[in-house]
Amino acid sequence: MPKISSPIAKTLVQIGLTEKEAAVYEALLELGKAGMGGLLKKIPYKRGNAYDLVKALIDKGLVTETVIKGKKVFVIEPPERIKVLLDEREKTVQQQAKTLNANYESLNSLYRITMNKPGVRYFEGKEGIIKIYEELLANNQPIDSIEDKGDLVESIPDYAATYVKKRVQKRIPNRVISPDTNTLNQSNPEKLLEARLVPADQFPFRMDIKISGNKVSLITFPEKNIVGVLIDNQEIAENFHILFEFLWTKLATQN
Questions:
Q1: Residue 238: which domain range?
Q2: What stretch of H or E contains 198?
Q3: Average pLDDT over residues 118-126
Q4: Last residue of one domain, picked from the residues 80, 103, 121
């Protein structure tokens, strides 16, 4: 492998070429154009390896292959192509950064779960909130809820009915504590729903809290931006279960 020492070769390596590709490019830059025989005199590579390197440069748009007087010739492209290559690389890096940012919370959550730390994911908008409910259903465990006045139905009416239908199909029971103004949360054995109500004027809940296994969801439904958090952690979930059981038992003694 040639030692990369010239400024041109170092620049080419920095923008993404391999050291061997940089050496071949620099040789062709000195020659302008050359057949494989002439090129091999300038580089320390065997024919097969040299052709692969030239092909890589052709794929990057830095070299063109043509035929002159019946012989295959490789022609160096203008240096502007290096700038185009760099621009394309920058766009790729920006897209990769965007993809990473979009999936960062999920990656971080998985890391925290692996390291026995709370896994927390943040969701926005209707599609994000639906993902939370779908994950709770996929958990296939009983769901305990402390609900608001019925904002899910108002905000995502089509999915609200779908959610209940899926929960019943999966035979997932749901215990609910909600304001007495929420007419949707009435105990219904067919829907596997058991509800206990609190006076809305004393306890005006404005959040949908759901506890299922080791998962806890916290969702609010403001008019402009629905937001939710999904926590996957055994200790946090157990404490929410204890809190729910306390409230559930307390309400039973009052009715």
A1: 113-254
A2: strand 193-198
A3: 82
A4: 80
